[in-house]
Amino acid sequence: MNPRPWWAKLGRLGLILLATVYCLFPIYFMLVQSLKTAQEDIFGNPLIVLHPTLENFEELFERKGETRGFVGSVLRRSYPFLDWLENTLVVFAGTVSLTLVVSVAAAYALCRLFVPLYQVVNRLGLDDNLLALLLIYPTMALPFCIWILSAYFHNLSREIEEAALIEGASRATAFFRIILPMSRPVLVAAGIFTLGTIASDFMIASVFLLSPENQTIPAGLGTVEVALDELAAVAGINLLALPVLVISALFARGYVRGLTASMVEGS
Q1: CATH superfamily entry for domain 80-263
Q2: Under a CB-based contact definition with an 8 Å cutoff, are residues 182 and 53 in contact?
Q3: Could you read off the pLDDT tens digit of each residue along the chain, which spans 267 residues?
């Protein structure tokens, strides 16, 4: 078999580099914008920052009544970013946990689940309540999570469970002590998918959460006055993206292993 010519390898590397730059440029641009002062944002180069500052991040955590600085206190609005952060963490943790629990149960036993979204929220009186998102968000991620978990359980050898049952273990013991630990890579894949789904949602959170103190970061940043607080909004987006990026990077190998295991061998 003849080796590839040098120009083919160079072209392939060039395409990979181009795709990498295309994917990373929005992240770089948002980071640069969040580190600029208001003066540099108007008069400076849009692609670089000469005098980086953290004042935009600090502004998100300012208390009411503090002086804004360059724009002035007259035009300043106070944003309850700490409330948004707390609400977002509650929704993140609750949604991921609830989605994984229901996904495992549904994939292993029921394989189907339907939640009448709008009717449930209204009948339970959960308008402007974080519990509404904890009911809605899992339904967004459940189809994918149930699908990969069902594929994994289907491909997983039944002899593993049967061996445990022969040794005297109950089906529940076999599931929690053997099957579930073996499913760890698939659970990682399902969890990361769920996290990405809810972190990128703006519409549902903004519809069901109307009070500023109850909103998550995506919904809260949607209320920011961009004309006055553009840099602070970009800083908030970076703060939202950071934990998602870190978690995805830490579990990237497990994510790939989980998708592969669910589709190929179940192991």
Answers
A1: MetI-like (1.10.3720.10)
A2: no
A3: 556 777 777 888 888 888 888 888 888 888 888 888 777 777 778 788 888 888 777 777 775 545 445 444 445 566 777 788 888 888 888 888 888 887 777 666 544 445 555 666 777 788 778 888 888 888 788 888 888 888 888 877 788 888 888 888 888 888 888 888 888 888 888 888 888 888 888 888 887 787 888 888 888 887 777 666 777 777 887 888 888 788 878 887 777 777 777 666 544
Q: What is the pTM of this model?
A: 0.52
Phi/psi of residue 161, nearest 5 degrees: -65, -45
Q: Are residues 215 and 209 in contact, defined by beta-carbon separation less than 8 angstroms?
A: yes
Question: Which positions ≥6 away from 59 have C-beta within 8 Å?
Answer: 68, 229, 232, 235
Q: How far apart, in whole angstroms, are the C-alpha atoms of residue 149 and residue 32?
A: 40
108 neighbors 77 (Cβ within 8 angstroms): no
